[in-house]
Amino acid sequence: MELNFSRYSLGHFPTPIEYLKNISNHLNGPQIYIKRDDCTGLASGGNKTRKLEYLMPDALKKESTLIITVGAVQSNHARQTAAACSILNLKCLIILEQRLKNAPEAYNNSGNIFLNKLFGAEIMLCPKEKEVEEFAKEIIIKKKNEGEIPYYIPVGGSNEIGELGYVECMREIIQEKEKYKFSHIVVASGSGGTHSGTVVGKTYFKSDIKIIGISVKDKKIDQEKKVYNLAIKCCDYINCPYPNKEDIVVFDNYVGDGYGVPTEGMKEAINLMARKEAILLDPVYSGKGFDGLLDLINKQYFKDTDKILFIHTGGAVSLHAYEWAFN
Q1: What pTM was computed for the model?
Q2: CA-to-CA distance for 109 and 326, rounded, in angstroms?
Q3: For the residues 45-59, what does the mean pLDDT come to?
Q4: 167-195 per-position pLDDT tens digit
Q5: Taking the CB of residue 18, how many other CB atoms lie within 10 A of it?
Q6: CA atoms of 34 and 92, how far apart (whole Å)
Q7: What is the sign, positive or negative, of the torsion defined by CA atoms of 274, 278, 281, 287?
Q8: Statement to judge: residues 206 and 316 lie in one domain
Q9: I need a labelling partner for 50 at 20 to 30 A (CA). Which of 6, 109, 286, 313 fits?
């Protein structure tokens, strides 16, 4: 049963699933696999490519001339949106929120910021005294008055259309289920679209895989509510039964001092993955997500017989902007 919605091919799918043999042996616990959504291909890859494959056709259908989106300074979503606009010959405006206090120059100028410029996007910083969503609304009105037809993509591409990318990802994973027999999926949970999309996919395709979100920003109660509300909207959109609230599981112990703020656990997780498997995680999402998975294994949350799939959401481009955090 496939999704019957407009989709524009931007990436390489299905992405590979790999067994993390060295890390699994190192931990001497459950078997750990990784879904390589860092290998989606668009602008160095990442999970947002899946969402954009459904969002961009909606923009084209509405005859939009300008894509506007928001994110943190080192937003992976912004980079992939800018790249998608390049392919489709659309103008792109990225409104960036400054979430790190006293960030070094490299954070504000390298990594994703540099690539946004290469892809030809216009970059605008949200004033620190304003909420980014409200500021975006002001800019949308201004651009309409200038004759543009703006199409707004929310932070992370996380709405009922963007979520379709991870409903589809769950179809890929479930098709491999007999081969791997996964018991759990673990994913970093930020704007919520990737996490909620997998939950909707689990429901839509009637899977029994347990899904765990590792929050990179909000408290457990707030993140679970956000993910559930996104899932409900997506279920309404595709005419799918609602998931059980018990299907939304979030751990918030790995956020540290805030979104994008480095933690010791994140750095250890990135170092371990690099040195054991030669796979690069990112400092904001997958690094903290994998830190959470490692800690849950050490706390014996999983059985040794479990088979866990970690979804790598990409973002290693931002490592260049975080080199200072590893010194």
Answers
A1: 0.97
A2: 18
A3: 98
A4: 999 999 999 878 999 999 999 999 999 99
A5: 15
A6: 32
A7: negative
A8: yes
A9: 109
